Amino acid sequence: MLTIHSTMSLNNGVEIPRLGLGVYQSDPGDETRRAVLHALDAGYRHIDTAAAYRNEESVGAALAESGVPRADVFITTKLWNQDHGYEAALAALDRSLDRLGLDTVDLYIIHWPVEGHRLDSWRALEHALELGKARSIGVSNYLVRHLDEVLDEGTVVPAVNQIELSPYIFETRRDTVELCRSRGIALEAYSPLTKARKLDDPPLVAIAEKHGRTTAQILIRWALRKDFIVIPKSVHADRIRENANVFDFELDDEDMAALDALDEGLATGWDPADAP
């Protein structure tokens, strides 16, 4: 089993593993259950799911089946767009906890900055934190204007902002990254592997060959070097293990500069720049 030790402290003192398994687009049922079991067996202690993924039950089943103590695994889930609003958000969290088979999640996140009710939803998350139903609360896909709203109106600074980050969009998102860092909001990189769109990009391949690594491992190592939390997704046991095998090499400053120069504003999903 790989030993994955790297953690960081969130702004409320909660420790979060810097590498996790994402289960976006993992089919509900056995595919997700097996992927989570593979990850836990490989040493992962951080699983990221969401109500919208429809696989929270499978994550919970795998956690129960694994025999890994609940206290050792960091579980994140997210509030979906249709459940925004104070009472609706609290009810949605209860449903997620029920599907996961848990009394609390380690991180509960607003999935998208839906216009109209997101401040009411944030107040609900603050209350969930008080109730102990979430150990930490955060946001996802929040750019500067969305973060400013929460920072101005909320009473709790988000612990995490989960956004798409890779070398192919980093410079485009630099203002959001800098705001988060200035306010102690941890950055969590989703789709760090660009949904495989750039894995054969020649400059990335050259760096991978230099280190004797895969291009996926280079992208994950880049995110870790940037002090991001990173949640690559895979359902294959060998790739899950391979993605975690990134703690025994370093990218040098020349590598990082070359990777940072790859920005092309690539958002592989819906771009929150389009959100009001």
Write a concise synopsis of the structure shown:
With about 280 residues, the protein is of the alpha/beta class. The protein is built from ten helices and ten strands.
Task: Give an overview of the whole structure.
- The termini are far apart.
- The strands form 2 sheets. This protein has an 8-stranded parallel beta sheet with strand order 3-4-5-6-7-8-9-10. Strands 1-2 form a two-stranded antiparallel sheet.
- It is α/β, with parallel strands linked by helices and about 280 residues long.
- The chain is globular.
- It has 10 helices and 10 strands.
- Strand 4, helix 2 (about 55-65) and strand 5 (about 75-80) form a beta-alpha-beta unit.
- Helix 2 runs parallel beside helix 3 (about 85-100), helix 3 packs across helix 4 and helix 7 (about 200-210) crosses helix 8.
- The model has no long low-confidence stretch (mean pLDDT about 95).
- The chain has one domain (about 5-265): TIM Barrel, CATH 3.20.20.
